[in-house]
Amino acid sequence: MTISESSNQLIKDFEAALNLDGHPHSGQPLFAGVDLGTAYIVTAVVDSRGTPLAGALTRSRASIRDGLVLDYVGSITILRQQVEMLRRSGFPLQLASAAFPPGTTGKNAQAFGNVLQAVGLDVAGLTDEPTAASLVLDIDEGAVVDIGGGTTGISVIQNGEVVYTADEPTGGIHVDLVLAGHYRIDEHEAESIKTDSVRQAEIFPLIQPVFQKMASIVKQHLQGYPVKTLYLVGGTSCFPGIERVMEAETGLTVARPHNPLLVTPLGIALSCLKENAVELRAETEGK
């Protein structure tokens, strides 16, 4: 099983839209998705057809940790800057959705929506991150594994429905810690090494055990479910070779889309569109 060409093209379109500046939309409704991640905060904007129009991506180290909003002020500051930039560029955002790690409930989940409200956005809805990613991947069966900076989220999908979710505190930060310990540097320097394409082959043997641990955790959570394919998303899934480790450790087919970092925020925007479409239909039918 591979990622469909249409799904990869959608991600590529969003990737291109991130670089747009001063290209105002033509007055159609806008739907935004905000991914408050450990390493990045990403906002995606789509139109009523689900076409990516614009977006913003900002480093956000320490604002979110282990799936919890720890630094409200930092998260709000970054998101406000993104929203203001997008509005100046001709995208007057008002309606948005957010996502939380699977298994997050109550006030911890609502906190993600509170960040959106704090910058003046209307919250269309909240969803878990792997479920949002599945909207981009357009899958009915399999497991979405969202490996971010601080956590790994797992969602099992059967017949188009999410039947199991889990979230584990392991992600890119743990890779950084291994590199920091080995080279005796701080985490920020380790992050730079990890994302340097020239050095990734060199450091792969050092961090492979971390990926193997992630894979063993995923395998454990999937026991009892007839999953055949894993779909890797999230920033840490961008590292070359992680898919091979996942395949070797789990014995499952592993599919990785173009630029896994952008899948979840785009899916959140599509979730916002989907939620608003449902409400509009309900209002129309009620009249």
CATH C-level name of the largest domain: Alpha Beta
Instruction: Report the sheet-strand fraction.
Output: 15-25%
Instruction: Report helical residue fraction.
Output: 40-55%
Corresponding CATH architecture of the largest domain? 2-Layer Sandwich
User: Given the structure, what is the number of helices?
Assistant: 9
**What is the domain tally?**
2
What is the third-level CATH name, the topology of the largest domain? Nucleotidyltransferase, domain 5
Can you tell me about this structure?
This protein has 287 residues and is an alpha/beta fold. It has two domains: 5-134 and 261-286, ATPase, nucleotide binding domain (Nucleotidyltransferase, domain 5), CATH 3.30.420.40; 138-257, ATPase, nucleotide binding domain (Nucleotidyltransferase, domain 5, 2-Layer Sandwich). 44% of the residues lie in helices and 23% in strands. The protein has helices spanning 5-17, 72-88, 106-118, 129-137, 172-183, 187-194, 200-221, 242-250, 263-286, and strands at 31-36, 40-46, 52-59, 64-65, 68-69, 95-100, 122-128, 142-147, 152-158, 161-168, 229-233, 253-255. The protein has a five-stranded mixed β-sheet with strand order 3-2-1-6-7. It has a five-stranded mixed β-sheet with strand order 10-9-8-11-12, with helices on both faces. Helix 5 packs across helix 7 (200-221). The protein starts with a helix and ends with a helix.
